[in-house]
Amino acid sequence: MRKSYTKSPVAAKRDPAEMGRNLEERCRELLSGLFQAVLEAEVDEALERLRYERRCDPAKGGYRDGFDRPRTLTSNRGPIDVRRPRVRGATFSSAILPRHKRRLQDVDESLTDLWLDGLSTRSFEGTLRAFLGADAPLSAATIARTNRQLLADFEAWKGRRLDDLELAFVWADGVYLGAGPDDQRRVFLSVLGADRDGKKHLVALQEAMAESAAHWNEIFADLAERGLRAPELLIADGANGLWAAANKAWPQTAQQRCWVHKMRNVEEKLPKEHAPAVRSALGEIMYAETEPLARKKLEQLAKSYERRYPKAAACMRDDRDRLFAYYRFPESTWVHLRTTNPIESIFAPIRNRTDAMKRLRTAEFASAVTLALIQRLSKKWRRLRGHTELKEMLANPLAKRIAA
Prior knowledge:
alpha/beta; 3 domains; disordered C terminus
């Protein structure tokens, strides 16, 4: 009976057990050959001619001058050997293999990912040595140098343009994390937006000593400078500095105060035994079907506490116009607009990682790490409920909706 073989019958006829043992070595050989071919192609392009081909224009200098010493690179498949071509009489810089490069880019990215996942710098040696080879640089200092790319990525992210981003809703909040200098408690001022398709985008992240109006003014001014237009609605807590900055930057934007923060503020002005009842009552008001009904119930609740706990009643009435702004928007989106939970829920898993970090000595690097963790989580973010209604909403002029 005739048998058919692949185009490489010699490899196909090898003993299966031997092939299994040598598979990784064979893969590294193929990767090394491919890498070398790319290096040769780069030289061909730089000199504008193939190897052993004469120059068409004698005025153009540059010629091949052999190779550098063999170099062992660390790849995700283990060590591979390559020779970097040399060029005389012309400037040649390899994009795939810069001078002094000892690791492929995907290795650096993998090391950073593992560190972000929680692998300590001292554990890389014992964990990855068998996979990357005996000569792979895996010291704590090497991992620290690799992680410096996070700073460059953070700077590029802060300077990106936002002209094409049209946001329907924006959540702003200051979040405290266990990161940064140990002797200073810093807050990360964060701005999260949702576009007309219901997709979330982190547009600002800045560390600060406090949630002051000056810091928020700086953030909103930077967003405007990079081309971000005013959103339909801003959701935030009761920080006066934030609202003052928002009034200056986005005067036509509707404002919604977080109901969770309001509940906490009211509970702080009542005895603990009253907390469950008032929390339940405020929750019922928050889920009222119409704005007039919600306003009526809030006033009734304030009156019931006014005689014995006047400060709690005053807190309920304070800033109440901002508590009901979400009624101006599609009902299907209300679940996202009543609180700042969309932004706070992002930082919940990040705290698990940053709380364990003991060597984030600079606030800048802490910001870069926080951004990297958020970007990893953003791949699993879900779109807002009711996103199909946002395009129609954004088609109406902003001033018309605010007037309504």
